[in-house]
Amino acid sequence: MTSPRKSVITAWKQASSRQAPLLAAGVAFYAFLSLFPAMIAAVMTYGLVASPETVANQSDQIADALPSDAASVVTGQLDSLIKTSDSSLGIGLAVALVLAIYSAAGGVGNLVTAINAMFGLGETRGFIKRKALSLLLTLGAIVFVVLVVALVAVAPAVLDEIDIVPGVRAAFEAGRWLLLLAAVTIAIGVLFRLAPNRAASGSLVSKGVVVATVLWLLVSVGFSLYVDNFGSYGKTYGALAGVVVLLLWLWIGIYAILLGACVEAVREDVVTPETVEEDTTIAEWRTAEAAGETVPTEVVEEPEPETEREPGTLREPDSRSASLFKRKRHARQH
C-alpha cells in the first residue's frame, strides 16, 4: 500500500506532468462563458414566481460569497436582468434555458476531459454517451446551484421572518453551512464517480473527494480575503478588474478539483509512481527533441547467435565474460 507521503508526491507529479494549471485555465474560460447564460435562465425562471425586489435582495446575498470585484460583475448583470419586464421574461425564458443548458454542458464536457487527463485515461466513450454524460452532470449542477441558492439566500430570509430565540437561530445557521459543505462534497464525489473513463469503485466520499473539497474551500476563502484586503486589481486592470478576479477565482477552484482528481487516481491505483515517472520521462524527451537537442536513446543489442563448435573446442569468451572471470579469480586469490 502506498504511504500517504508518497501518494501526495505522486499526485503532485501527476498534476504537473498532465498540465493541470493549463487545463484548469481552459475549463475556467469555458465556465466563465457559460456563467452568464446560466444567470439569465436562473433570473428569468425565478422572476416568474418572485418579485424583482426579492430577486435583487437575494442576489446580493449570493454575491457575498464571491470576491468583491467578481461580485460587482455578477450583481451588475443580475441588476440589469431584474429590470427586465415580466413579459420579456416570459418570452425569452425558453430560448435562455436552451442557451444556458447548451453552454453549461459544453463547460462540463471540458471539465470531464480535464479530469480524464488527471487520471491518465483516454476517452473511448462514443459521442452520444459523452454528450449524455455532460447533460446529466449539467442537470446535476443545476440542482446543486438551486440548493446553494436555497441555503445561502433563501434560508436567511426565511429565518428573518420567523421569530425564534437566538440560540435556535445560531443552530440553524450552523446547520445550513454544514449542509452546504455536504452538498459540495457530494457534488465533487458524483463528478469523480462519473467523469473518468473507468469503472467506478469504492465510496462516493473518498480521499480524493475530501482533498478536492477542502482545497476548494480553502483557496476560495483565501483568495476572497486576499482580494478584499490586499489585492490591487482595480489599479492594474481598471474596469476589467471584476472580470479578471472572477476568472482567477474560477481557475483556482477548478485547479483544486483537478488536484483532488490526481489524489483519487493515485488512491485507485489508476496512477502509480511508475506511470508518472514514465510520463515525465516522455515529456522531457519530447521537450528536448523540440528544442533541437541531441536526444540520447538506449540501444539494445541483440545477442549474436552461437555458432556450432566442433566437439572438444572451447567457446571464445566475450569481453564482459572475460572481465567478470578475471575479477572472480582475483577475489579467490586474495
Automatic annotation (TrEMBL):
Query: Basic residues compositional bias: what residue ranges?
Result: 325-334
The listed locations are: Cell membrane
Q: Region (Disordered): which ranges?
A: 287-334
Provide the alphabetized UniProt keywords. Answer: Cell membrane, Membrane, Transmembrane, Transmembrane helix
- Entry keyword annotation includes Transmembrane helix: yes
* Major location category of this protein: membrane
Segments crossing the lipid bilayer: 21-49, 89-112, 133-157, 177-196, 208-227, 239-258
Q: Does the keyword Transmembrane apply?
A: yes
Gene Ontology cellular-component annotations: plasma membrane
Biased-composition ranges, Basic and acidic residues, are 306-319
Its domain of life reads Bacteria
Q: Where is the composition biased (Low complexity)?
A: 288-298
Pfam families linked:
Virul_fac_BrkB
Q: How does it sit in the membrane?
A: Multi-pass membrane protein
- InterPro entries of this UniProt entry? Virul_fac_BrkB (IPR017039)
Q: Which PANTHER family match?
A: INNER MEMBRANE PROTEIN YHJD, UPF0761 MEMBRANE PROTEIN YIHY
Q: What is this protein called?
A: YihY/virulence factor BrkB family protein
